[in-house]
Amino acid sequence: MPAAIEVRDVHKRFGELQALSGIDLEIRQGEFFGLLGPNGAGKTTLISVLAGLARADRGSARVMGHDVRADYRAARRSLGVVPQELVFDPFFTVRETLRFQSGYFGVRDNGAWIEEVMRHLDLASKAEVNMRALSGGMKRRVLVAQALVHKPPVIVLDEPTAGVDVELRQALWQFIRRLNRDGHTIVLTTHYLEEAEALCERIAMLKQGRVVALDSTANLLKRVHHLFLRLRLSGELPGELRPLEHGSTAEAHILRLKGFEDVEQALACIRKAGCRIEEMELMQPDLEDAFVDVMQRS
Amino acid sequence: MSGFPTLLYKEVLRFWKVSTQTIGAPVLTAVLFLFIFSHVMEGRIRIYDAVPYAAFLVPGLVMMSVLQNAFANSSSSLVQSKMTGNIIFVLLPPLAYWEFFAAYVLAAAARGMVVGAAVLLVTLPFVEIEFRRPLWIIAFAFSASAVLGSLGMIAGIWAEKIDQVAAFQNFFIMPLTFLSGVFYSIHSLPAFWQGISHFNPFFYMIDGFRYGFFGVSDVNPFRSLAVVTAFLGVVSAITLTMLKSGYRLRH
Ligand SMILES: Nc1ncnc2c1ncn2[C@@H]1O[C@H](COP(=O)(O)OP(=O)(O)OP(=O)(O)O)[C@@H](O)[C@H]1O
Ligand SMILES: [Mg+2]
Fold first, then answer.
1. 3-state SS string over chain A?
2. Which atom of ligand 1 is nearest to the CA of A15?
3. Contact B73, B115 (CB under 8 A)
């Protein structure tokens, strides 16, 4: 069984800027995969190479075993991409947009599936509305629907939830999860790390065009050894604890501790200073901590 | 199944939906040209001895509308799609570059010929014209609009802004059209300019097209058709090469 996505030594530069410098990546069929990284890391560029929108200067990319250059027709048929930019064709209605997209992929008589996709994305009531008249979030939904019209085995979503309301976000993830259960491979980029943590089995982190971490979500979380202690105190935070302070909100301090042993010490310190603890919470590291860690270290 | 029929249909629907602007406006322009020029020139010139000026002018205006609208269709569609970013909708699917080419060129030819037919229809009540060789009329209308559709693709792919398409149109397409004999027979020109006109491929489009109406022309229509077909081959080859390389479409 070929990998859903196989990227070998892909380099891409735009003028002086090296956007991708040697990406190697393999995503298995059926995976729910996260592609994370700060702005400008190269996520969209990598997706563009997979989709044939950009051409790698070096290296190769395959989708479901089909080379994106030599066998572009099969590769593109296997791939559905939700682009990051909010684009639309102002000449057409929602249904026309979806029918055309289906037709471009050579899928005729696709009405039933188009209706189903529209229903899942809550677009049915907008079917006859011109694209121009839709709100931003609605346009985003149409982009998602467009990527799904040809039932591609591999679905790539480039920040699909940017500017989308809570309701759709949940409906969208429910739908995408179902597609994943049905065997579709999902690749997701997002800056909402809770979303990635909840959804993705495996994650690659990109920085300046390189993969700086590639592991299962569980392993990435395990790599972070520290934990966080959130405290609300009756008085000032004792001076000895100041260096541990990781952040603070209006009423609480957050301390970054190396392990459970440190909790005892911190509490002893507070008692000695004559402070009263009004509220306390021990927090496990989340993907955001893992992300910050990886980005700082690499 | 191929995505070509859908892309062709979409490109046709795109201009059909805004037909006031894409068909109505150019028809009005052509009719204004006809009334003003024929009023000013009537009686002063007779062409091929027998043809009154207004009758001579009609095929020229029709062809001018065909050329300009075929060019406008593919160039504006492409440059708008590139600027708004929705070009990705046709770059993501498994369309071959020659399917892409055929869809845009055929839609442009359709627009050119629909506008041309409309101009002809509107002028019929006012000007008496003959249709001596209808097959030549169709052959030249199609090949010429395909050439301009292809040139429009080149302009649309190359341009990064609307004004670059306008520049291509104003500094290349318009002069070649106006100097090709839309408003006059090149026989009325001094010998030197007559010679120059023979290097203008647009001249053969209009001359051959006129032959279809009057059965007379400056140049043998077979020769004109050969020139236009060869020109079509050249611009198509350039367009296909651009598409295949992904020039300015795939980074
Ligand atoms: N067409 C282009 N021309 C020039 N530079 C480009 C082009 N596309 C991307 N870049 C540059 O390549 C780098 C990677 O961009 P890319 O869009 O892949 O980042 P990203 O990881 O998707 O970021 P974001 O999270 O902001 O979407 C950036 O520095 C960007 O400015
Ligand atoms: Mg991006």
1. CCCCEEEEEEEEEECCEEEEEEEEEEECCCCEEEEECCCCCCHHHHHHHHHCCCCCCEEEEEECCEECCCCHHHHHHCEEEECCCCCCCCCCEHHHHHHHHHHHCCCCCCHHHHHHHHHHCCCHHHCCCEHHHCCHHHHHHHHHHHHHCCCCCEEEEECCCCCCCHHHHHHHHHHHHHHHHCCCEEEEECCCHHHHHHHCCEEEEEECCEEEEEEEHHHHHHCCCCEEEEEEECCCCCHHHHHHEEEECCCCEEEEECCHHHHHHHHHHHHHCCCCEEEEEEECCCHHHHHHHHHHHC
2. 4
3. no
**Which domains can be identified in chain A, with CATH numbers?**
5-221 (3.40.50.300), 225-285 (3.30.70)
Specify the ligand 1 atom closest to the Cα of A84.
27
Give the ligand whose atoms come closest to the C-alpha of residue A18: 1
- The per-residue DSSP string of B140-179 comes to HHHHHHHHHHHHHHHHHHH-SSHHHHHHHIIIIIHHHHHT
Phi then psi for residue B150, to 5 deg, are: -70, -45
Give per-residue pLDDT as tens, B155-186.
999 999 999 999 999 999 999 998 888 888 77
The residue written with tokens 């985003």 in the block is A140
Retrieve residue A287's tokens: 């993907």
pLDDT in tens, A69-105: 999 999 999 999 999 999 999 999 999 999 999 999 9
Within 8 A of B251 by CB-CB distance, chain A residues are 14, 48, 53-55
- What is the end-to-end Cα distance of chain B in Å, rounded? 27
The reply to whether B83 touches chain A by the CB within 8 Å rule is no
Strand partners of residue A11: A21, A58
* Centroid of ligand 1 to alpha carbon of A45 (angstroms): 6
Nearest CA, atom 17, ligand 1: A44
Instruction: Inform me whether the C-beta atom of residue A183 falls under 8 Å from chain B C-beta atoms.
Output: no
Q: In terms of Cα–Cα distance, which of A30, A131, A37, A143 is closest to A81?
A: A143
pTM comes to 0.90
- Could you report the predicted ipTM of this complex, rounded to two decimals? 0.91
- What CA–CA distance (Å, rounded) separates A296 from B4? 49
Can you give the C-alpha Rg of chain B in angstroms? Answer: 18
Give the span between the Cα atoms of B129 and B119, in whole angstroms. 13
Q: Is the CB of A17 under 6 A from ligand 1?
A: yes
